[in-house]
Amino acid sequence: MPANLPPEALAAWERYLEAKTTQEKIRCLQEYISLIPHHKGVEKELRSAKIRLAKLKEELAKERARAKGTGERWLVPKEHDAQVTIIGMPNSGKSNLLNALVDAEASKVADYPFTTTKPEVGVMDLDGALIQIVDLPAIIEGSSEGLNNGTRVLTAIRNSDGSVLVVDLADDPITQLKIVFNELKKANIRLNMRTPPVKIQKTGAGGIQILDAHYFTEEKNLIKEILNDRGIINAVVTFYGPVNLEEFLDAVNEQSVSRKPCVLVANKGDVQGSLAKFNQLNEFVKANNYPFQKVIGVSATSRKGIETLKMEIFRSLDIIRVYTRDSRNEVAQRPLVLKKGAHTVKDAVEMVSKKFLKTFRFARVWGTSVKFDGERVGLDHELADRDQIRIYA
Ligand SMILES: Nc1nc2c(ncn2[C@@H]2O[C@H](COP(=O)(O)OP(=O)(O)O)[C@@H](O)[C@H]2O)c(=O)[nH]1
Ligand SMILES: [Mg+2]
After folding, report:
1. Residues 214, 362: one domain?
2. Are residues 313 and 365 both part of a single domain?
3. How many domains is the chain partitioned into structurally?
4. Which atom belonging to ligand 1 lies closest to the Cα atom of 166?
5. What is the pLDDT of residue 72?
6. What percent of the chain has pLDDT over 70?
């Protein structure tokens, strides 16, 4: 330890010795170096301090790299009843929308593109159904080829239960819709598309057999051609309803296609000229058969339209809230949230406790799924949103 140093430098040195984190050590050492006077007697000390500083900086870089490997999560672990991603082009207001939906400053908003570099997450409470909202980095032209972290963004969309596609009424919403939709399409993500009504079962022999081929809207020979082209020589192809070429190709590539519900949102409805653009967007969506029943107009800033949007998100996910009644007919505070395709009494009973399934006798239901209040139903009965159920087991 050098002796001939001013007291401020010695104090900074003391702080350096006591510093806990690498970053703090670096800060104190930098301060110490700045306080060392420039004269010959302390040259050696200055040099060794600088070497020490360089080493600490290297250390910090390593620490940061390690943190990146483990800490930067792109596939946001699913929590609560469903996970919804917010997707759209830069600056369309995705982060603002997240804040509006979860009503918390969970995501920072800035005035320049590419603010969101990793997912930001919040939770939206819809009368007891908790929806996790994930704000993703923007989709741009080329996302499907990996631009702007496209690979990770698209994987996150595939992993979610549904999406909100945001376009910007202060910009060109139609072009934005086309670009985002096209990037997702290229990445084999189908928004609001049903599973095509066709089944392809590979068999050991017999060539390509086609049942109810009249449902296929194209030249029938194409079926055999497409399958043979993929090395499928023997299969039974069964159509259940109308299927076009694109849908048939999706059915052949079923493993790589993911279908997601999606709500189309036009944001910045508060800016001048937004109404005309909103109307044009609506017409464009209808005229070009984009798979959206309607466009939800909102202003994330003024919170206009946000309640409607929340309801639309809930509806798109096809989940329902069911309230249990206890033996005194007291209705539970928090609902059971039944997932998509699992809306029966059996699903509800299982959610309460698997052991009730063995002793189940019947249930009584109040709400829109029954003809009269307290109607007696069995395990197969399909429940509706906001029904109340009392289980007799
Ligand atoms: N007028 C208006 N501006 C908005 C609205 N939502 C977002 N913005 C602005 O648009 C810019 C981008 O918003 P941000 O949420 O960061 O967009 P992101 O890049 O899609 O996440 C910011 O300057 C916001 O203030 C809105 O509803 N109305
Ligand atoms: Mg953002």
Report:
1. no
2. no
3. 4
4. 20
5. 46
6. 93
The backbone torsions φ and ψ at residue 79, rounded to the nearest 5 degrees and listed phi first, read: -130, 155
Rg (CA), the chain: 30
Write out pLDDT tens, residues 347-388: 999 998 888 899 999 999 999 999 999 999 999 999 999 999
Helix (H, G, I), strand (E, B) or coil at 105: coil
Ligand 1 in reach of 310 Cβ (< 6 A): no
- What are the angstrom distances between the C-alpha of 176 and each of 7, 90, 99? 62, 10, 22
Give the domain-ending residue among 255, 271, 303. 255
Tell whether 61 is covered by a domain: yes
- What is the pLDDT of the chain when averaged over all its residues? 89
Q: CA nearest 196: which of 254, 157, 235?
A: 254
Q: Are residues 96 and 170 in the same domain?
A: yes
Question: For residue 101, how far is its CA from the centre of ligand 1 (angstroms)?
Answer: 14
Q: Is 116 near ligand 1, meaning CB less than 6 Å away?
A: yes
Residue 211 and residue 139 share a domain:
no
What is the Å distance from ligand 1's center to 136 Cα? 14
Of 138, 136, 139, 103, which is closest to residue 122 (Cα–Cα)? Answer: 103
Is the beta carbon of 107 within 6 A of some atom in ligand 1?
no
Q: Which domain holds residue 345?
A: 320-392
Question: Among the three residues 23, 41, 71, which one is the final residue of a domain in this structure?
Answer: 71
Domain-located, residue 304:
yes
Is the pLDDT assigned to residue 1 strictly greater than 80? no
H or E element: which one contains 43?
helix 43-71
Q: Are residues 164 and 86 in the same domain?
A: yes
Q: In angstroms, what is the span from residue 204 Cα to ligand 1's centroid?
A: 57
Closest of 244, 268, 104, 65 to residue 176, by C-alpha: 268
- Would the CB of 91 count as within 6 Å of ligand 1? yes
Residue 227 lies in a domain: yes
Residues 350 and 368 grouped into a single domain: yes
Among 3-12, 48-57, 165-174, 334-343, the range with the most confident prediction by mean pLDDT is: 165-174
Lowest mean pLDDT among 137-141, 230-234, 313-317: 230-234
Pocket test for ligand 1, best of 86, 96, 304 (most atoms within 8 A of CB): 96
The pLDDT tens digits for 29-73 are 989 998 888 777 788 888 888 888 877 877 877 776 666 554 445
